[in-house]
Write the structure tokens for this entry.
Amino acid sequence: MAAGISPLLSTNVQSLPPDEVIFGSSRTMQALRSQVHKVANADVPVLIEGESGTGKDIVAQLIHRLSPVRSGPFVKVNCPAIPGTLVESELFGYERGAFTGAHGAKAGRVELANAGTLFLDEISELDLSLQSKLLQLLQDGQFCRIGGQADTKVEVRVICATNRSLEEEVANGTFRQDLLYRINVVTLEVPPLRERVSDIPILMAYFLDLYAEKYNCPAREFSPAMIAAFQRYHWPGNIRELENSIRRYVILGDKEVLIGEMKMQKPGPLEIDFVYDGSMSLKVMSRKAVRRLENKIILNALKTHRWNRKQAARVLNISYRALLYKLKEAGVVERPELAEMSLEGD
């Protein structure tokens, strides 16, 4: 929805597309629009769920813009993009001398969001120890800087987003159940693009105008065949992928290449080549077949995301640790070509 890639940390609301572009005309998005307008005025934590690239950050910014704290800061924290050793200091700040290199005190993002909104993108990536500090913030409106002796009180609205099932993360022991109860007073679900195909022409036209003006490179209007091709495509990267496709079309002007790429990326049916030789029971054979199917699904996800395991885990809706365990169980090594062989075998 929004142009470009969001920065690691931001303290302002970006210019947002018009409502008709954000929500389109599909029934699911119109229902979401109604929920956003209702929840904006309620001072409660909000959890936004949805696949990567669906525009959860845009929904968070819109809630802030419609809320009573709209004049305050909007502070976004991209949780998986911050190195683990820096997350606590970035969130909660530190006092002088708290650790080596802390030559002065520094306010964290929670303090910077005072009288405004704190948006925690991909909250499932937070370490358990930091989840407990966040829980205190939500319960008492207080936190303590690293190396500090006294708690600091703030008035902050917290909005969180995730592309995973936090219930599954709780079951896996990687997310606190009490924190989940705190952050999902209201839960909003942003549907994937493939479930709102009627909105695709609106988004195509918006990004075409946006990038034609940005690059001073007028592009031809979309033909009915091109629109139909976009609506047939499954869009694993959702709106972010569509945006990048339109940007490429504006720059290169070759719609045939674009349509060809979409046809090449369309996933085919997953088949299991399994021949029964009479040496195994049904139970053993079924277990092997399920394992092989799971391996093929994992391989497909890894290929789609260029062997980026964190992205593959998000798409598969499993924790990063669970994916690493499954790769280890399959005997996968670092080199992709060998990993492919391992996953496709028994």
User: Anything to note?
Assistant: The radius of gyration is 23 Å. The CA atoms of residues 276 and 285 lie 8 Å apart.
